[in-house]
Amino acid sequence: MVGVKSVPSPAISADDRSHEVDHPSSEVALFGADQPLRLDCGVDLTPFQIAYKTYGELNADRSNAVLICHALTGDQHVANVHPVTGKSGWWETLVGPGRPLDPARYFIICSNVIGGCMGSTGPASINPATGKVWGLDFPVITIPDMVRAQAMLIDRLGIDTLFAVVGGSMGGMQVLQWTAAYPARVYSALAIACSTRHSAQNIAFHELGRQAVMADPDWHNGAYADRGIHPHRGLAVARMAAHITYLSDAALHRKFGRRMQDRELPTFSFDADFQVESYLRYQGSSFVERFDANSYLYLTRAMDYFDIAGDHGGVLAKAFAGIETRFCVVSFTSDWLFPTSESRALVHALNASSARVSFAEIETDRGHDAFLLDVPEFFDISRAFLQSAGKARGLTGKND
Amino acid sequence: MSVQEVLPFNGLASEQSGPFRADHLLVAEMVKPGSKVLDVGCGDGDLLQLLETRGIDGRGIELSREGVNRCVAKGLAVVQGDADTDLVNYPDDAFDYVILSQTLQATRQPKIVLENLLRIGRRAIVSFPNFGFWRMRLQLLIGGHMPRTENLPASWYDTSNIHFCTIKDFVELCDEIHVKMERAEALDLYGRPLRLRLPWWVWNLFGEQGVFLLTRGQGK
Lengths: 400, 220
Description:
Oligomer: heterodimer
Helix content of chain A: 25-40%
Strand order of the largest sheet of chain B: 3-2-1-4-5-7-6
Shape of chain A: globular
């Protein structure tokens, strides 16, 4: 989260963003006509590509691979300077030397999801059949589709079993989908601030965001790329609304209160008089510089469709029957987007499946975004969980 | 059930050995190596850690968030939950043993909890403070106030222990719900087993706590 002091906006052009779509500043795995991605909607996506980053080295018996799944607006740049924004990696609090996920110990992989806009095939990519940007012709994708694509990448990297799959929010949904779809390939799973299904309230917020994008006259039914424009205003409003859901009343009050922005008195206008308004506007405007509006529509839709129990006859425990994966589920007290009750329902289902599960609720007033912030108790738990799983897996590290 | 049916205690060192509590050592000794155990009300996870050193696959439930987080930070598989409400979510026969250590008296429905323990686990190990302990009786008889001890220091108005019982009460409850006792122990104030084979009333008077290994009885 960025403080209210406005950070000088890096010189980002639309070209930087669109360049990353097809030519990402990271490794890329290409999948040709012989390896289509079979999507839940019935379409075979081919050809397609997955952009990914790796940190650390794969050990000799290929047992130390960790897959990080990013959240809605994240990408593969977990622990390096972002090629578009110039900011540090989005999860450097968790990943890096001396951190719970230390590249000296693990081979860490993070890929941009299918449908994203940082190098994996998505609505902003060129449709090879037409030579034009996919736009709304891109098939609707789901969380299981994202995971299926990741599994193809993991195959390509020659890895059979992942030591851990880790993610928060939409990343946590992917973690759970991994365990449900490929239980034998996931030794341990760290699912943070997430749920096995998207709630009605969350679908409602996503619909609000999508409608904001679609209401922007620059959206042009998703065909804005052909016109060389981007629905900045709609996407910024979507981001502002969503950003509120990532925080909490207490955190907003603590950070901003009713303080004024660079002024003593109200201007009696619709300027950003309040610091909180200025902060939200900044969040909106910086987001549109790095994110594609159609991609936002597709990824929010994927989250809305997510319902593991629905895919298993309505009984969540069936999704995890007989699973041997070690789980750690983490929630945050002030997270009202993915509240603790959702994690608890997951834990009950895992218990009913006799899965090995730890569940901790972390006290914090920082809301859903807490998983991206410096919350020591969360790191202690993540570190201990990964270390004990590593011990059981026979991974040795210099920190042991 | 009579005291003659109860197996005599055999073999555990009565001294505090190493970093583990004597009552935990006794409980751990009742668990067969290689089995799967659920510790209900596992606190800071000391017993689970002890079981882990013996190659036992342990899981825990703990009510307090602080306790859970300390357990998870130790690498233990512990979830935040309530014995009264969350045991119903566990399937039948999920564990070889379910342990309820010093927690029965804090549950709202001890009888239902006990029944759940023996539904989820093939065996249950239950320990609880004995309200029939002579010092308890003396405080009530002579002092005329609700008993407080080193192990149970809370006042009546702020204790979480709402269902105290005596060893005798517990044995009667086990009979009533057709639970079979495989083994019973009474521990003194320092958590050491009373070594002699004594009649129930002596245990009920001199045992500061009771530890019971239970199985499902017939006739249910």
